[in-house]
Structure formats: C-alpha cells, structure tokens
Automatic annotation (TrEMBL):
UniProt name for this protein: Helix-turn-helix domain-containing protein
Residue ranges of the TM segments: none
Gene3D superfamilies: lambda repressor-like DNA-binding domains
Every HTH cro/C1-type domain range: 32-88
Taxonomic lineage from the root: Bacteria, Pseudomonadati, Pseudomonadota, Gammaproteobacteria, Enterobacterales
Top-level lineage group: Bacteria
Coiled-coil features, chain-numbered ranges: none
Amino acid sequence: MATLDELMNEVSPARRAKIEERAEEMVREITLAQMREELQISQTELAATLGVKQPAVARMERVDNDPRLSTLKRYVAALGGELSIDVKLPSGKRVAYPL
C-alpha cells in the first residue's frame, strides 16, 4: 500500500496545491469547532461571551472563513484560553510567540 507522500508525489503540482489548500481549510474548521465542543460550550453561549450573535460564531467556524489574528485571539480568549503562534524555523528550532 502506498503512503500518502507517495500518492501526493503522483499528482500534478496544481492538483497537489488544491489538495493542500483544502486540507488546511478542513483543519481550521475542525479546530475552532472542536475547541468549543471540547469545552461543551454552545455557539450561543460563546456568542454571548464574545458580545455577538450566534450566526457570527457559526461564520467564524466555517471552512471559507479566513479570520484575522485578532478575531482568533478573541475567540480563544472567550473559551478561556490563550493564543500563541508556533514557528518552526528551517533549523528545526521551534519558537512560540504569545499574542
């Protein structure tokens, strides 16, 4: 059975880019909703904490949403968490920047 890397090497660069873009979108969508659901907080409850209406939270969690860092920070803070950026340098060193 072929590995994912082997299969990805067989597709065209354009198709590979589309696959990678869609995978990033799926991860972003799952991550926001999963964080909220893990804490057993409804969209309505989170919306009240953020001072917005529930549809605004639903939009934040949509695949096609590309939120600003400030929006992500507010979302995570409303969940009681802290947002940071984790950077992996070419040397392999990782650096975290709290926001």
